[in-house]
Amino acid sequence: MDEPKYLYKYRYFDKDGYHLNVIKDLELYFSSPKDLNDPFDCKISERFDLMSEGEWRDFLYHKVKRENVDLHPNRLQKLITNLEKDIPFIKYDSFYEGMEDHTNSSLGICSFSLNKNQNVLWSLYSDIHKGFLIEFKFEELKKTLQFEMLKSLGSDNQVGILDEIVKYHDNFPVIKPGLSYHDEPEKHYVNLFSIKSSEWIHEDEYRFFSLLKNSCGIPITSDCIHKVIAGLNITEENYNDLNEACREQNIKLVHAEKEQFSFKTKY
User: Fold this and answer.
1) Domain span at residue 99?
2) Which of 40, 46, 70, 224 could pair with 177 as two cysteines, CB 3.0-4.6 Å apart?
């Protein structure tokens, strides 16, 4: 798939004003997987239990070698031997639990939709059309998030932000560890964390991932936002607050309207 031109975030007016702060403070929040609304999200793991003992040892070898490229072969083998003792071939449960704990503590996710006119999303995430929709310019947003994340992590880091379209599966996927982990481990796991049940297909989701930080806000610029759309049922008070926030950031605000003889809205 080609990179999209725009991404969309459906928001509502929460009592603490966090959602409006995306515009007022120009900041996007990256959640931990444990805080997502789908309890199965980011819980797909490679099926190490389907590996032979030889495949398991080969996996550990490549993992340690990739993480210690300049290490002497004797030291490398010692590390591998110690790792095999810490994570024996038969103890998959503890390995899976450790992977999930690591994911929850380090992976950050910021979700968007590729669909700007989805009534289900307006209802679920924008308080039955009482909220608003933010239209982001993909290229500018990606560039800004990458810059801000690398700036916060330091110059030694090469990967700050990755992005991926969500794939929807009817059945829980069976994924056996393979070479993709050793070749591009970050991209491998981002792909793994972008698989959801087809029950969520209406969200048409696109994700940005922070691989080292979560439960945090990342600054953006007003240039990342193309426009904001006020919902069909927004109250006058909330519209005024939204209008003021957009005016201060010089962001275009439009009001959604019903299309005649259609189930769609127009902006």
Assistant:
1) 43-106
2) 46
Contacts for 188 with CB less than 8 Å, ≥ 6 apart: 180, 181
pTM of the model: 0.84
pLDDT > 80? residue 151:
no
Same domain for 115 and 188, yes or no, is yes
pLDDT of residue 91: 56
Q: How far is CA 120 from the centre of its chain?
A: 20
Least trusted range by pLDDT, from 122-126, 182-186, 255-259: 182-186
Residue at which a domain ends, from 106, 132, 160: 106
CA distance 40 to 232: 32
The 8-class DSSP code of residue 259 comes to P
Shared domain check, 114 and 102: no
pLDDT at 61: 77
Interval 70-79 mean pLDDT: 79
Phi, psi at residue 162, to the nearest 5°? -120, 160
- Six-digit token pair at 95? 């390995």
Residues 82 and 202 in one domain: no
Specify the pLDDT at position 90. Answer: 55
Asked whether residue 219 falls in the same domain as residue 234, the answer is: yes
The number of domains in the chain is 2
**Which residue, chain included where needed, has tokens 């009817």?**
170
Q: How far apart are CA 76 and CA 62, in angstroms?
A: 10
Flag whether 204 is in a domain. yes
Check residue 167 and report its DSSP letter: E
Name, in order, each residue with C-beta under 8 angstroms of 202's C-beta and a sequence gap of 6 or more: 118, 120, 121
Give a yes or no: residue 37 inside a domain: no
Confidence of residue 171 (pLDDT cuts 50, 70, 90): very high
Q: With beta carbons less than 8 A apart as the criterion, state whether 10 and 234 touch.
A: no
pLDDT mean over 43-64: 78
